[in-house]
Specification:
Strand content: over 45%
Shape: elongated
Oligomer: single chain
Number of strands: 61
Structural class: mainly beta
Distance between the termini: 201 Å
Helix content: under 10%
Largest sheet: 7 strands, antiparallel
Number of helices: 0
Radius of gyration: 58 Å
Strand order of the largest sheet: 3-29-28-27-26-25-24
Amino acid sequence: MLPFAHLIACSVNGMRAVRRTGSLAVAVSALILVPSIARALPSGSVDITPITVTQTTGEKPQSKVWKHAGRWWSVLCNSSGTQLRRLDTNTWTNVLQLSTATDAKADVKVVADTAHVLLYRGTASQLVSVQYVPATTSYALWSVRTSTVNITLDSGVEVGTIDVDSQGRMWLASDAATTVNVRWADRPYTTWSAPIQLASGITTDDIASVTAFGGNKIGVLWSNQTTARYGFRTHTDGTTPTTWTADEVPASQSAFTCANALGMADDHLHLAAASNGTVYAAVKTGCDAAIGEAVILLLVRRPAGTWDNAYTVDTDGTRPIVLVNETLNQVSVLYTQANGLNPIVYKDSPTSAIAFGSRQTVISGAWNDVTSTKQIIGSDAVIMASSTTQATAVYRGSSPSFTITASAGSGGSISPSGSVSVPSGSNQSFTITPNAGFTIANVTVDGVGQGAISTFTFNNVTATHTISATFQAVTTTFTINASAGSGGSISPTGAVTVNSGANQTFTITPNAGFHVQNVVVDGSSVGAQTSFTFNNVTANHTISASFAINTFTITATAGAGGIISPSGGVTVNSGANQQFTISPAAGFHIFSVVVDGVAQAAATTFTFNNVTANHTIHATFAINTFTITASAGSGGSISPSGAVTVNSGANQSFTISPSSGFHVVNVLVDGASQGAVTSFTFNNVTANHTISATFAANTVTFTITASAGSGGSISPSG
């Protein structure tokens, strides 16, 4: 520290470091030797056509621009609402309206292909999340949560910013009238915590900002114009949300008081975090530019948690932001050249040893509220600023270009090949050339096959692309003609082209109810095969398959006394029907019909429907019988008697026997008298009959001669 009790200005290569001793006599870093400064912002510049806006590119700690899928995007308002835009060469194209609000101030955090957008609108702010859609080179509402989330902030709030920690938790830092607060929400960020107070006693003009850094931490920086200092507290990811470190008071060892009695803190701040955990903060002091005091500073927190002395960036300017370029190991601070609408300027410094070069203009004209991205920049960047009604931007880098990755498989080449850089809007042709003995098999563009083409042109290139070519050896081919008869198929079929020396298999498939009858290869039968392979094909061939319907046998038999027709082993085609007729012989009847061992009705016909298996059918018969009812009256008997069963065609004799003292009076057969016979035979019986016999007692007579003498009579007489 310089031991002087008055204001000292050290000027080296255009840099001024202001030191003031006294009650707050501490130093702002000043380097006595400034090395050659490399540019952190990419060289080359393309002006982007301004757009009409209804809200500026503020607020100071916010970032409204990002890069994804090789394209730059932004969120700003117009009279229709809040628009997400894509940069196409040098113009912005509206791709998605996020809200109907025309006054929102956006802060964008990109996580992989998702962009979370805080639409700051005072106490009634909102969160909209969108995801990238490669097919349309655009964005759509986040599939995880398509709805807009309303977030109520504290009274007196001036601005809000967001970031996402390593656990996927989102943090929102904002100010209230006199306090600094954070809120948090876990995916999908619909429910937000109550405010957690990190600091109090700030003025209504102070603001705060949040950043994720170091791989596992969240940090919040705020201004405190009451103490004339900046504050910074950190939280370790995954710990209790209310657990935060003490205020680190950034660069307090180099704090100072300005000639106007104001200190190093004003409500202008912006954060950027390097991948190694270093935190950079571009801030503005309360000092007076008119007398050359330090106005724009860079505060640097090292990964170990220590803060460098504050680095003076410029003695004039307002609303600074900071960008980190790790490709070049550079840091850039961008700001409005002076209060009000003025050119947007910047200074670069190496990150290894902070030392800012001369002021450079990045956007000429009358603008303010410079904004860019939270991301670490590389070969290009987009810087935006606005007036009250228009937003302008500049693309820094070589003319916007896109990479077409061209590759070729063995057997040929594509020209040009490798990573081909194509200026936006240009055309790029590729030539595909097979080697001798090869031919183009296919050309694939962005994953879609284009066929065996030898050239392809990408027209009006506005995105990255891929093109790849495959080749195949030119070979002698032979034809195998494959055919199949009715009842089945062969696969593949028709004229099948086979490379010389290759193998080719054919599958023979019968239809339902059919079987392979024969396969003939080059005119010779190879039997009933279901597949056949031609090995090491060196000539043309033929293969044909024939099929036959499946048949089944129904074995039909009949016992004595009748027949079944057809009989024996009856062959039936698969799926066909087969009827059998059962006929008893004369004097017989069907006794039973048994099909596959199961008794059926004793019908004269039986039909097997849709035959798909072997079967049996057997018929049995029984001779017909008749009843001769034989009866005898008293005085004799008939034998046999009662209901006498007689087989059809048989004879049946009956014997009629009178009892002693009786004789046969008559024999009736079927009601007809046969006389007083003692036997009767029914011959060739074919019907029921009756036979009955009657008897009478035998009688003996004697003669009594009766006579009477004269004088009287006897009666009877004689």
